[in-house]
Structure formats: C-alpha cells, structure tokens
Amino acid sequence: MHRFANPARFLRLAAVILPWTAIATVLLLGAGLYLGLIASPADYQQGETVRIMYVHVPSAWLGMACYSTMAFASAVALIWKHPLADLVGKSAAPIGAGFTFVCLVTGSLWGRPMWGTWWAWDARLTSMLILLFLYLGYMALINAFDDPTRGARAAAILALAGAVNIPIIKFSVDWWNTLHQPASVTKFGMPSVDPAMLVPLLLMGLGFTTFFVTVLLLRVRSEIIAAKIRAIRLTQIHASSSQVAG
Amino acid sequence: MNLSTYFDMGGYAGFVWPAYALTALVMLALLGTTLRTLRAREATLKTMQETLPNRRGNRPAAPRS
Amino acid sequence: MSRMIEIVRRDLRLALRQGSDSVMVVTFFVLTVVLFPFGIGPEANILERTSAGVLWVTALLASMLSLDRLFQADYEDGSLELLALTPTALEVLVLGKVAAHWLTTGLPLMVAAPVLAVLLHMNADGFGTLLLTMLLGTPTLSLIGAMGAALVLGARRGGVLLSLLVLPLYVPVLIFGVGAIDAAVQGLPSQAHLLILGGMLLASLALTPWAAAAALRQALE
User: Fold this and answer.
1) First-residue to last-residue Cα distance in chain A
2) Whole-complex ipTM
C-alpha cells in the first residue's frame, strides 16, 4: 500500500488501468442492458416493472460499497497518514451519494406500480435514505473548511463514525420496520430471482462497479492535480512576499 | 413483439423508462463533471508549470513530458 | 477522575454564570411540543398515539441546540489549547464537558418531559419508561453530539452542519427510545429496548470520547 503513496506512481498506475476499466464498463453495461431490457423475461407477478430491479439493486450495492471504500480509506488516512487515502475518500463520496440517490428514486418508481405508493418506509429504503444523509454530511464537512487537510481529516473521523453506526442503524431500522409494517409488505419488491434474471443483475452490478473504479481514478487524479496547483500557488505567494520583504 | 408494444413495457413505461433515464443521467453527470474539472485543472497546472521561474534564473522551465 | 470532576465543575460554573442555556433549551422543548396539537389537532387519541415520538424527536432537537458551543468558546479564547497541553488525556476532558452538557441540557429535559407527556395525553403506563429512556438516551445524545461538535470546530456554518452530521446518528436512539415507551404503553415488556439503549450508551461512552479527542487534535493542529 505504501508503494502507492507516491502520487506520481499512482498516476502512472491509474493511467494504465483506466482504459481497461472504461472498456469493461461499456461492455458490462451494454451486455447487462441488453439482457436486462430485451433478452430476459418479465416477472410472473410483477410484469415488466421487474426490469427496474436491474438498476435499483446494483445502485444499492454500489451505494453501500462506496461507503465501505470511504470508510476504509478514512481508516488508512487516519492511522497511517497515507496522503492518497484522504483523496480516495473525498473522491468516492459523490459517486456513492449519486448511486444512493438513484437507488431511492428507482425504488420509488418500482414501488408505485407495485405497492400503489411513491414511498414506503420499508427497511431497505429507509436505511438507504439515512445512508444518503451520511454521505451528504460527509461531503458538507469536507468542504466546510478553508484548509483542505483539516476538512479531509475531520471527514475521515466522521466516515468511520458513520461506518460503526451503519450496522446499528440497519439493525434499528429493520426492527422498527417489522414492528410497524403489516406482514404483506415485508421484502420490498424482490421477486424470486430466476437465473435468467440473475445474469443481467450481476452484469449490471459489475458494470456499475467498473464505472465506480473508473470515475474514482479520474477524480483522484483530479484531486492530485488540484493539490499540486495549491502547492505551486503557496510557493508563489511565499516567493512574492519574500521579494517584497527582501 | 413490435417496437411500440415493447416500449410500452406492459403499461409500466412511465416507471421503467424514467428509472433507466435517471440512472443514466446521474452516471453521465458524475462522469461529465469529473472530466470537466479534470481538464480544467490539467490546463491550469500546465499553464503554471510553463510560466514557473526556473531555479537557476527566470527562464520558464522546459515543458515536462 | 478528579481532573474530570474539575472540568465538570468549571463548565457548570460557566454555564450557571451564563444561565440562559438550560432555560433556552427547556423553553424550546416546551414550545415545540406545544406546537404539535396546533399542527395535528387536539384530539386526545391522536396525541396519545404520537406522544412518545413527539417528545423524543423534540428532546433530540432541543439537546442539539447547545452543542455547537460545547467546545467553541474554549477554542476561540485559546483555553482549549491550554487544556490540551495538560497531562490529562483529551478524552477525559471530553467526558467532563459532556457530563456538564448533560447536566445542563439532558437533565432539565428529563424534568420537563413528564409535564409535557401530560399535555400530550400520554398513557400513564408510559411515564416511568419515558423517564428511563431519557435517562439512558440523553447522555448518548450528548456523547454523539460532542463528537459532532468537535468535528465542526472552526468550520463554516458549524451549527447547521452539526445537525446534518449528528441527526442520522441519533436515529437508533430515537427508534429504541420510542419503542420502549410504546411497548410499555401497550403492556408489553420493554426490557429489551432499555437494554439496547443501555448498550448504545456504553458503546458511546467507550468510542465517542476517543473520536472527539481525535477531532479536537485535528482542530488544534
């Protein structure tokens, strides 16, 4: 891991990986969309709306996976002061928030024809909603300081606090949900998945994952460059102020 | 089945297509804003490095590969 | 330990000198709860059904009010830096401040809660559990809130940001606090809920001072 602490080395590695993840994304999403939208059957009970599952469920997976990435990167940043770990966390957050948002809205669109309601306080959607707030809080905190390092470190602590809380929140929300929901609305929208549906689901999941990696690498590269720009500006300020003084 | 029946999605077109559209929109927006910021920052850095005074004097540094 | 008591005493003295904090928090609590009958109607059935939730949500919001000043004043006048330089661990300092915060916020809320429960027609079976849940829950809120306050030290719009950070983390306490009261009102056992609340309190006691101290060190760098 410390081999990648050097930004230049990371950038070289990223430049090598990036075309592959990009191509993989296109191929996986293409195959997934084809199978999901065209070459797979509609569900016996849910009809064509089951096709929403192919974007809703992978978004949920990615929403959670992104937070795990953020939490892991935050731990590395705090424990080893790894310079790139801060940037990974900062870069992953908007992607995770985006997927969580997509999960919520597609869940709503799935729920309306199925359960007759635009929103249901079922366990998964409610947990996803809270996850979205955790993301927004992280992004707000990291941008609330003039000093980017301070923002990054504070957000890292928050990410870890959130990560510790997520199982507790999930447990609480699950419990709360079983207490209040009538038994008929237990598992919101998951049909019994037959193999013809499993393959496009997995393809979309993998495609979303390679998309995440692609965008993450691009964002980290962008952050490294931004850090270089800040460093140059700082030396310019020091140079000009020493010229004035001297 | 023909194309219009397919697009109708068994009557659920108003739900299925917006779901996919939103997903595509969010993913493209993530990619697009990332690329735009990246290009802008790369351009700024390039400009800064070209006009940076060389340590030995005030000539601009040779462009790095 | 004695150092911690010192800090509690110091903060209490400062709070009492100021005086208005506890009064404001309790007034906000009372006012907001009183708004609900205007909002959802005075019908006793509905108020009773929602009383536990309304009380807990409002207590949650009220306890957040004085959080952003937990470390702010000391941070601004430099005494936080001095306190950090003492041989006592920063975690102890955090615990001391949290204790003082709870005494000036959580405790008054606990005193006001039964009175408000009467206004909301809460079933008599729920009162004891209400107090128990607040006894176990409000310190947890103070602990989690202290971590949030440490994180936003020196940030822009720290007060609002604090709410955004801390409210999602409050949800489990809210769920089980209300759950316990609702169970008691229905005549069902509420020990499990109270045990879980107790567990959350212990976990917060163990983890949040450490996180808050780390955040304070960040702020003082």
Assistant:
1) 44
2) 0.88
User: Would A206 be classed as within a structural domain?
Assistant: yes
Q: Is A173 on the interface with B (CB under 8 A)?
A: no
The DSSP-derived string for chain A is: -GGGGSHHHHHHHHHHHHHHHHHHHHHHHHHHHIIIIISSPPBTTTBGGGGGHHHHHHHHHHHHHHHHHHHHHHHHHHHH--HHHHHHHHHHHHHHHHHHHHHHHHHHHHHHHHHS-S----HHHHHHHHHHHHHHHHHHHHTS-SSHHHHHHHHHHHHHHHHHHHHHHHHHHHHHHHHHS-GGGSSTT-----HHHHHHHHHHHHHHHHHHHHHHHHHHHHHHHHHHHHHHHHHHHHHHHHHHH-
Q: What is the residue whose two structure tokens read 């310019």?
A: A236
Q: Compute the distance between CA of residue A4 and CA of residue A82 in angstroms, rounded to an integer.
A: 9
Q: How far A207 CA lies from chain B's nearest CA (Å)?
A: 12
Whether A165 and C169 lie within 8 Å, measured CB to CB: yes
Indicate whether A152 belongs to any domain: yes
Chain A residues close to C175, C-beta within 8 Å:
172-173, 175-176
The reply to whether B18 touches chain A by the CB within 8 Å rule is yes
Q: For residue A86, give the amino acid letter.
A: D
Q: Residue A8: inside a domain, yes or no?
A: no
Question: C69-95, pLDDT tens digit by residue?
Answer: 888 888 888 888 888 888 888 888 899
Report residue A229 as tokens. Answer: 């720009």
Residue A178 carries which side chain, given as an amino acid letter? T
Distance from CA of B11 to the nearest CA of A (A): 8
CB contact under 8 A, C179 and A179: yes
Backbone angles phi, psi at C99, to 5 degrees: -60, -45
Q: What is the DSSP letter of B55?
A: T
Which residue in chain C has the smallest CA separation from A128? C168
User: Which residues of chain A neighbour C158 with C-beta distances below 8 Å?
Assistant: 144
Q: Which residues does chain A have within 8 Å of residue B19's beta carbon, measured at their own beta carbons?
A: 52, 55-56, 105-106, 109-110
CATH of the domain at A47: 1.20.120
Chain Cα centroid distance, residue A80: 23
- Quote the pLDDT of residue A184: 43
Of B15, B27, B42, the CB nearest to A49: B15
A121 and chain C: CB distance < 8 Å anywhere? no
Rounded-to-integer distance, Cα C112 and Cα C124, Å: 16
> Which residue from A minimizes the CA distance to B12?
A49
**Which residue ranges make up each domain of chain C?**
2-220
Q: How many domains does chain A have?
A: 1
Using the Cβ of C146 and the Cβ atoms of chain A, whether some distance falls under 8 Å is answered with no
Containing structural domain, residue A83: 26-183+200-245
What digits encode the pLDDT tens for the residues A98-125? 999 999 999 999 888 887 888 878 888 8
Domain contains A32: yes
Global confidence as pTM: 0.88
* DSSP secondary structure letters along A14-56: HHHHHHHHHHHHHHHHHHHHIIIIISSPPBTTTBGGGGGHHHH
Nearest residue of B to residue A103, measured between CA atoms: B23
